[in-house]
Amino acid sequence: MAAALMLTACSNDIENVAEKPAKKIIPFTATVSTESVMTRIDAAEGSGTYRLTFTSGDKLYVSSLEESPILEGMLTINPADVGQTTATFTGELKYTPGETDPATPAADLGIWVELVLEDEASSSSEICDNVKEAIQKYSNLGNVIKYSELSSFNFIPQKGFIDFDITLSGGNAPTAGTSVDITVDGTIVYNDEYPIAPEALSLSGSSTVTSDGEVKFAIPVKASVEGYWTATLKDAKVTVKEGGTGTRYSGSCSFADSGGFKVEGKVYRAVRTIDSWTEYTPHAEP
Description:
By secondary structure, the protein is mostly beta strands. About 10% of the residues lie in helices and about 45% in strands.
């Protein structure tokens, strides 16, 4: 009798295991475009549109939002779409259901999608020579969608860009052809509804004064995402210093005061003038 009960118990265990949903590998293809109204990066003044073009090695990261079920994978770009603003990404998604989850992903399963750029620079952003370079390196495109939308969807830009055109004038201003060091400092403050602490904006790089006595460069800035957070850039300034050794001059200008401005996934133009210069002596290299 005991043996019969044991056999019955074992049989139930086997049945329970058999009923548990199995992991699945799902071949998948997704089409993404940076031509859409949501994804393209417009000039804040309404005078132009910038579009990220896909490059060889770009990938599409897919991940479910909840702990169960788990859907995850990395899709790779179709080589024929390199250099285009619309691309297909193919690969496999791994689906791991929990005990009470459906055997295949539900149509309303929440998904996070993110474009992983081949050209993506390190998380420590630097000043770029122009807006196009900044967009290619630092665009952060992602979105929260449903599984039913995964085959074709729009991204949401999570970075804004500031395109600087700074005229250097006045006595002691660096002249054409002079190498200058540039730093950009400020603070990004988020709305109270989303629990993110303020972040320091601190970027550096170098440039050369143009024949017109200007320095031109661009930077990425974390942007607001509708429905999630509002990002405001405050107390921001640019400092330009002559490179080299010996006595040199530096100057600065503001481009966001204490009130700040809301940053969206757009390109902002910052045309400024630095006309006051202070003498300084660079530290000698050790």
